[in-house]
Amino acid sequence: MGSGLLLRGAAALCARGLRAAAACRLCPLLPRPLSTGGSGCLRAAPGPPGRGEPPRSVGRGKGAAHSEEEEEDLEELLAPGPPPGAQRLLVVHPAVKWGVKKPQLTTAELQVAEAVALINTLHNWTVLDKIILSTKTPDKKFIFGKGNFQILTEKIKGLPHITAVFLNIERLSPLTKKELEDAWGVTVFDRYTVVLHIFRCNARTKEAKLQIALAEIPLLRTNLKNEMSHLDQQRGGSRYIMGSGETFMEMQYRLLKEKEFKIRNALEKLRRKRSVLRTQRERREFPVISVMGYTNCGKTTLIKALTGDEGLQPQDQLFATLDITAHAGYLPSHLAVIYVDTIGFLSELPHDLIESFSATLEDVAYSDLIVHVRDISHPETVLQKASVLSVLKNLNLPSHLLDSVVEVHNKVDLIEWYQSPETNAIAVSALLGYGLEELKEEIERIVLKTTGKRILTIKVNLAGPQLSWLYKEATVQEVDVMPENGTANVKVIISNSALGKYKKLFPQ
């Protein structure tokens, strides 16, 4: 993706306020502004205070000042990039007709339809036209053979308002991207850059924005290398910066490395915070259900239907959910559970993007149950299932978690007289409420089994503290009072550990 779309900020290029002559072409590539410290070394210039952060005051300790500087650095890393503006695109799908790279579970028409849906997700991006062209060698420099490449070039030249081409492959090499842009005279995007930009537009929390910034680093390095090669051709070699012993390119690589280090540190702090919250959740013994699926399969709509959370606002678009969110709900036995909404998956999702979000997805490993939601009305539902299961396997989840996945066939209201070919799947319409009670019962059955909870009837003395203890430490379902002897039969859902505590505190 062009540096004006993904990269942010402008930067000073040398110590003591001097600017290199080549800065004008490279300034969008640098991670953040620079200023000169008292020692003459380059350092990151402080950004504006974080939202809700108190202003600096005299007399604060070094630790507090250091914390503020870290917060300012983080705000700078999360600063929004320049608006990309409107794009008018031709969507090009290279169709591999034979060989090991030929897709098995989809068609070229469905693949180009998903590519168009990706573009339509972005505000002010418009698909002018789309084309499918066959290729034998998608890994070669020009993707297509001479004949099809000429057909494509003539089509692009015949679209007078075109501003970009979206080539529907996972990742273009820097050389291929440059050659194609030189040949066609417009910007060329691949799936990596388009999906990354969609992520940026949809990110809401600080963690999601940091994950996206981390995924940008490889692209920043590639663009920096390309720009430096161009400048070297113009000026005949790299320049050293004011006796620092460091070339201009070396300095930029160092700055990118420093930026990556800061982002990873910030993500690690957020990961530790999540770990603390997870420990508190486990202490209270709330079962956790991770809801996963292909993008736009209806995960958020399903969670809203299961929990009644009116604050959830599902959207009919790809990657509407990037941040993991938790929502409380109740099962038929009144057992309180937490449903976790996760990022949607995509076929051919670039490895760098998956790696950037791996810290968030690690929470799935601590779930008590995974619910896999499928849009059963989608023509590529089998491919979508394979894509999700592939990612789940790569997350190194415990075997018992993978073996107990509940598969939900959503959007059955869009299929007349739907009959599931899979006996263990549960058919639902999250939008209309069909099948939800059956789903809740299945979730409850597995959760009770995996968490070691039991449904028991315990006789308690109403004059003592047993009943209040059970309300606090277990899930009370029914209380059958027997006033003649001051006791009650209490039906509860209780974990083995809580039951052990009860017996120790209140021996019969």
Task: Write a structural description.
With 508 residues, the chain is of the alpha/beta class. It is 41% helix and 18% strand. It is built from 17 helices and 15 strands. The protein has helices at 3-6, 23-26, 62-77, 108-120, 146-157, 174-184, 191-202, 206-235, 248-283, 299-307, 351-356, 358-361, 381-394, 399-403, 436-451, 466-473, 496-505; strands spanning 34-36, 42-44, 87-96, 125-135, 164-167, 187-189, 288-293, 325-330, 336-341, 369-375, 406-410, 426-427, 453-461, 475-482, 487-495. A 6-stranded mixed β-sheet has the order 8-9-7-10-11-12, sandwiched between helices. Strand 8 (325-330) and strand 9 (336-341) form a beta hairpin.
Strand content: 15-25%
Which ranges are low-confidence, i.e. pLDDT below 50, for 5 or more consecutive residues? 1-66, 79-83
Q: In which range does the helix fraction lie?
A: 40-55%
Q: Regarding quaternary structure, how should these chains be classified?
A: single chain
* Envelope shape: elongated
How are the strands of the biggest sheet laid out side by side?
8-9-7-10-11-12
Largest sheet: 6 strands, mixed
Mean pLDDT: 76
| Number of DSSP E strands | 15
- Secondary-structure-based class equals alpha/beta
Please, how many helices? 17
- Using only C-alpha atoms, the radius of gyration works out to 28 Å
The end-to-end distance, rounded to whole angstroms, is 71 Å
